[in-house]
Specification:
- The chain is mostly helical.
- It has a single domain, classed as 3 helical TM bundles of succinate and fumarate reductases.
- Helices cover 77% and strands 0% of the residues.
- It is built from 4 helices and no strands.
- The protein starts with 16 loop residues before the first helix and ends with a helix.
- 11% of the residues are buried.
- The mean pLDDT is 91.
């Protein structure tokens, strides 16, 4: 019996922009799932009373948390816009290679703009906080 053909290794494939954006969408979803743990931590602290909430706010206000929250904002905006792109694909539009590449660039641009807008609004809200 002849040996079965092996599946090509990943190094054989040429990474196209659409493949990269698809992988990034999966990583963004994973980051959001892990970020959800922070939300659950905060909600449990709120339910635990004033002392637990104050402790949680001290933890969530650490300087290390700012880049983490910025990354979560970016992951959310990217995952949202990539999800909208997939919904458009579900209608049968934008599936040609050129359109798919163009929409991949559009997703990156819109998600960056959306993340900057959300970060700016959060900064404004923080600047007005007592």
């Amino acid at each position: 019996m002849p040996p079965r053909p092996l599946s090509p290794h990943l190094s054989v494939y040429k990474f196209k922009y659409t493949l990269t954006t698809s992988i990034l969408n999966r990583f963004a979803g994973l980051a959001l799932s892990l970020g959800l743990l922070l939300l659950v931590y905060w909600l449990l602290a709120v339910a635990g009373g004033a002392e637990a909430q104050a402790r949680a706010m001290r933890v969530l206000s650490l300087p290390l948390m700012r880049p983490l929250f910025a990354a979560l904002i970016l992951a959310f905006s990217y995952h949202l816009t990539a999800g909208i792109r997939h919904l458009v694909w579900d209608t049968g539009r934008g599936l040609e290679r050129k359109q798919s590449e163009r929409s991949a660039w559009l997703v990156v641009g819109v998600s960056l703009a959306l993340a900057l807008l959300v970060a700016y609004c959060a900064w404004l809200a923080g600047a007005r906080a007592p």
